[in-house]
Structures are given as structure tokens and as C-alpha cells.
Specification:
By secondary structure, the chain is mainly α. The protein is built from ten helices and two strands. The protein has a two-stranded antiparallel ribbon with strand order 1-2.
Length: about 210
């Protein structure tokens, strides 16, 4: 699985889309509580059935099939940011980065305070090799939500692999592990490796 995506995030984005857009599709229906990908609880509105069917397809990995369902829903509710965010994910995962970028841009126009949207924009920038733009987008996501675990993981990867800055990478990996519910053996190994490399570098610099 890509380090820039997990299925839990799909549900998070969809749920936050209705809650953060300022529009309540079922204003007379009691709100429900759901978990974010990092385990934090958020209060959301129940999802319309056709939108939920798109999420079911995405959770099953059927991104191509989800695209027309999401597009049909957006035609009816063009004022919601969340569906466009999920559309962007589906488009990116089916290889259409240009259309994904357009969907993210519109989602941010509708909800510029969406940390999840800035996180997805950063992923697209990184995939295009625009590392400084990706860094800026990750920083905006974390400014909006400092406890966004997955954003800490992914900005750590950007610093570590693409920008060759082990210090900030280690800081964000540690923050991710502190926020992440459960064990992530992969990131734990990255931390140990960075600590070892940083220690060796410091030893070489010490007289």
C-alpha cells in the first residue's frame, strides 16, 4: 500500500466533507460519531445513500466505478467539498492526476480550511516532483490540524527521501508515532535508521 494513502482516510475525507462544508444534507437527522484514520472521533452527519454507495466502492478498491457515482452526486450537490475530495482521490488512484488536481482545487475553493484537502494536494505535488510546493501544502494541512497523524507521516517521507533532511523527517515520524493508534513497525524502523544515521554523522563531526 502506498505510504500516501490508506482506506481509513477515504472514510475520513467523506465524513469531513459533509461536516466541514457548512452544509447539512440531513439537518433533521441526528449527528453520528465516527473515527478518523488516526483514531480521533469527529461528529458528522449521516451520508446520503448514493454518496455512501460511492464510498463503498472506494473502500473496495473500485475507484474507477466510484468516479461516475461521485460525479453524479456532485452534479446534484455542487456546494459540498467532501465529494470533490473523494473524487480527486479516485481520479489520482486511476492515474488521472490532472483531473484530480482540478477536483482538489475546487474542493479547496469550497473549503479552504480542510486539512484533508491540503494533504491530498501535497500528495499530488509530490507525485509531480514539485517538492517545495508539496512541503508548503503539508505545512498548511498541519497548521489547520497539528494532530493529523498521516500528514506527519507523509511530510516525514518528503523530508527523508526527497528533500534529504533527516532532522525534520525524524521529528515528524516521531510525532506520527505518538499520534498513531497502534503500532507501525515500518515507521518505527525508519526512526531507528534515521537515529543511527544521525548519530554516525554527529560522531564524524565531533573532534
Amino acid at each position: 500500500m502506498s505510504p500516501y494513502f490508506n482506506k481509513g482516510l477515504l472514510l475520513l475525507l467523506a465524513l469531513l466533507g459533509t461536516a466541514c462544508s457548512g452544509v447539512r444534507p440531513g439537518s433533521e437527522t441526528p449527528a453520528t460519531v465516527a473515527a478518523r484514520d488516526d483514531g480521533r472521533a469527529v461528529t458528522v452527519e449521516p451520508l446520503p445513500r448514493d454518496y455512501d454507495s460511492a464510498l463503498q466502492l472506494m473502500r473496495g478498491g473500485e475507484y474507477k466505478a466510484a468516479i461516475p457515482v461521485l460525479e453524479a452526486f456532485i452534479d446534484v450537490r455542487p456546494d459540498l467539498a467532501g465529494p470533490r475530495l473523494n473524487l480527486a482521490i479516485a481520479l489520482r488512484l486511476t492515474g488521472d492526476r490532472k483531473a484530480a488536481a482540478a477536483a482538489i482545487q475546487r474542493a479547496l475553493e469550497l473549503n479552504p480550511d480542510s486539512a484533508a484537502a491540503w494533504h491530498q494536494r501535497a500528495i499530488l505535488y509530490r507525485a509531480a516532483g514539485e517538492f517545495e510546493a508539496a512541503l508548503d501544502a503539508y505545512r498548511k494541512a498541519l497548521a489547520l490540524d497539528p494532530d493529523y497523524a498521516l500528514a506527519h507521516r507523509n511530510i516525514g517521507i518528503l523530508y527523508d527521501i526527497y528533500l534529504q533532511q533527516p532532522g525534520p523527517a525524524l521529528e515528524h515520524y516521531r510525532k506520527y508515532l505518538a499520534l498513531h493508534r497502534g503500532e507501525d513497525a515500518t515507521v518505527s524502523r525508519w526512526v531507528v535508521d534515521l537515529e543511527r544515521r544521525s548519530g554516525n554523522a554527529q560522531a564524524r563531526l565531533t573532534p
